[in-house]
Amino acid sequence: MMPAHFNRHGKARVSVLIIDDSPAMLALLEGLLKFDYQIMAAHDGESGLQLAAALAQPDLILLDVVMPGLDGHEVCRRLKADPATRDIPVIFLTSMNHEADVQLGFELGAVDYVAKPISAPILRARIKTHLSTKFATDFIKGKNQFLVGEVSKRARELEAVQDVTILALASLAETRDNETGNHLRRTQHYVQVLAEHMQRHPRFSLQLTRKNIELIYKSAPLHDIGKVGIPDHILLKNGRLTPEEFAVMKTHTTLGREAIEHAEKQLNHTLPFLALAKEIALCHHEKWDGSGYPAGLAGTNIPIPARLMAVADVYDALISRRVYKPPMTHEQAVAIITAGRGTHFDPDVLDAFLDLNGEFAEIARRFGDEAPGGPPLDPGAVT
């Protein structure tokens, strides 16, 4: 006698569904198998399909071929077409033993073919073999699903650690700077809405895929990471920089790229988001006409993520309070940025900014900074 199993439905005994229009055959098969298996019986194809799809599904189906209404072939075809029942092994029971009939049964998805009149030892052996195969397959499938779930869980955990690390590094740079704390969050969201808008532009659609936009969004907070390498007397100066001091300040772009490259070497691995972070850190002060720094890149030689960040960074600098200037209104900032079309900024990116300038103002409001001794700044207010 076969030992009892607990299947995925919590049943203590393995179940076999018999579908046959002959009451005598149903009684015979039940008598042969009832001591080893829990028997489910159906006298036609329709009721057999209903039992097969029920919550307490059978572990194996014995299926007669010649039946009125739905014959065995059609029942098997429907079982295999339904995702809920396709994995239940089907053994045909029939006196139709021509080679073409056997071949058709296998083509429909049956696992075996037992000829009538039934030989009890052969039937028991075939059932046992196919149930063992099914249980092994179910076990492997369950293990695979568990492993897929674990891999997905670990991937989410690593992604969360990556996000926290990015923000921690970027926030470290912010704590040494006299810029405001929400600058990172605002520029990150400015870049995101710009990238999503530019995704529809034929010049940008190939590079601004959904995945790349996500990576740009995540890496944007590292655009000023190089400021950790700028001396305090320059970085924290309470006033405008001299030309010599500004020359030192400009090195934060190369320092940022070098810091990220150093992190990559420590990891001994190149990550896509770090590649974009290097582009943004190094090139977000380049200008469309080639007058920017550090390399004087011009036009399309400037990486797309850096062109997006250039608009985001300048807009946020203009609307934010600095030790050397009060915040500008949204309208003033838009006017200044518009004047840089084709000189400072990629014309297409600038046009997208103009389309989205209301969203920029909303982001600035949502992530506004507390003005010293007063309420949050309202960069969208008209003064």
Explain how this protein is built.
Helix 4 (99-107) links the parallel strand 4 and strand 5. With 383 residues, the chain is α/β, with parallel strands linked by helices. Mean pLDDT is 85; it is low at 1-11 and 371-383. The longest helix has 56 residues, at 120-175. Helix 6 packs across helix 12 (304-319). It has helices at 23-33, 45-52, 72-81, 99-107, 120-175, 183-198, 210-219, 232-235, 243-249, 252-267, 272-283, 304-319, 330-339, 347-366; strands spanning 15-19, 38-42, 60-64, 90-94, 112-115. It has 2 domains: 15-147, Rossmann fold, CATH 3.40.50; 176-366, Orthogonal Bundle (Hypothetical protein af1432). It has 14 helices and 5 strands. It has a 5-stranded parallel sheet with strand order 2-1-3-4-5, sandwiched between helices.
Write the layout of secondary structure elements.
Blueprint lengths: L14 E5 L3 H11 L4 E5 L2 H8 L7 E5 L7 H10 L8 E5 L4 H9 L4 E4 L4 H56 L7 H16 L11 H10 L12 H4 L7 H7 L2 H16 L4 H12 L20 H16 L10 H10 L7 H20 L17
Parallel strand pairs: 1-2, 1-3, 3-4, 4-5
Helix pairs in contact: 2-3, 6-7, 6-12, 6-14, 7-11, 10-11, 11-12, 12-13, 12-14, 13-14
